[in-house]
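Below is one record:
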Amino acid sequence: MSQQSTATPESQLIEQRLKKLERIRDMGVDPYPYRFERSHTMDALREDFDRLAEEGDEVSVCGRLVVTRGHGKAAFADLRDGSGRFQIYVKLDVVGERLFDLWRLLDIGDFVGVMGPLFLTRTGEMTVEVRQLDLLSKAIRPLPVPKEEMRDGERVVHDAFADVELRYRRRYVDLALNPDVQDVFRKRTAIVSAIRRFLDEKAFLEVETPALQPLYGGAAARPFVTHHNALDMPLFLRISDELYLKRLIVGGFDRVYEICKDFRNEGIDRTHNPEFTLLELYQAYADYGDMMAIAEELVSSVAKEVTGSFTITYQGEEVDLTPPWRRLSMQEGIAQSAHIDISQASEDDLRAVCDRYEVDLEPGATRGKMIDEIFDAAVAPTLIQPTFVTDYPVDMSPLAKRHRDTEGLTERFEPFVCGAEIGNAFSELNDPIDQRDRFDQQAALREGGDSEAHVMDEDYVRAMEYGMPPTGGLGIGIDRLVMLLTDSASIRDVILFPQMRPEEGVDTPADAVEI
């Protein structure tokens, strides 16, 4: 009795493709050549089709083979490059037996280059009649190709590559199969470029600050820790670039910005990824009112440039980003939604409200932490249209200037859209004595068990002691802004390679060190 095969369908297909690869090599064809001379992208070919077809010019195009139709001595197929897809027609009588034998050994997913003239099919489809065929890369592993059909002149896709876990983990497959995913990341690039243009035109200087830092700071977050062997010292991946950028304000740069990767050792959810992209900008002689004007102008102008309108739709909600945006103090928002005056409430009162909203507080949660949790539970979900939430308590904002009119508050705001915070901004604290006191208070919180409390940064205080002018600072989460402007439900939809749990069966490198 023969032993039953345990080969998977995928492994069987891989074996078939390996046999085809061997036959291709036996034909004297290099399945992985060095280059191909392309005359047009697919989009350019489509735009200039009438002239090229009329003049009878031969074109050369290349891309991934995504669909084949037909058998026997002729076949239609679609090639797709980074700009789009285009139909080709391969016929035995035209290409000859050798190239048609090569054609029969091709599979969906292979990269192919073709040359030939253009023509319109009887159904009006723009097509390349193949005269020359080159295999550019033989795909060994099969793509999970969806089934397609033409229905009333429209391409209908069945069984698309929709497994979310696999799409994030194997983004290269997701991009290869889903042009709409490519569109999201093209828009992401356009958004970042538009931000740079906006700030450059306002005389902000783009700078770079350290990603590896001897001290981490600028936010309330837990860091990733590593070790520098040559210096024999611990280093931290930055959680923010704020303190370095403000050192530059001390040094005499009046307007600076950075678009950088930050890293926070925290959980993963719809709006959080441990590695994320942040814009931070600082302007001397400005305050948080100036930062509000910049924030609403920046976001609305970028939206207009990338989407064509100040009005967008996000997850079914129509949102008008036209300035000016609504202003709402944190105290007013909580009073309206949670029916409590946080300026008068005791810690027991705040804890009772947290219990009402079923907030899971950590032991020893501070007053500021409880207020923050109440706001997130009661107020944030109601903020659909763009809103600046202003004037946060001092103990929630160790780097913000005290409010000029109201004791116990700071001049800080966060912009909210569709229930999510997309940024943070201050009238920056520039009093070195007050800053040292705030750091000391944060140190006490750390000793009490708050792992996200800010660390003391003596050099930053020293820099401030040399004199820092009045300054406004603004941070905007690039990933969340891209989510908003591409109608993406999860932050992992707008990060090319989001952080994932280890894949089952894939080992950690033997030399990996746990810190």
User: Anything to note?
Assistant: The mean pLDDT is 92. The CA atoms of residues 303 and 485 lie 7 Å apart.
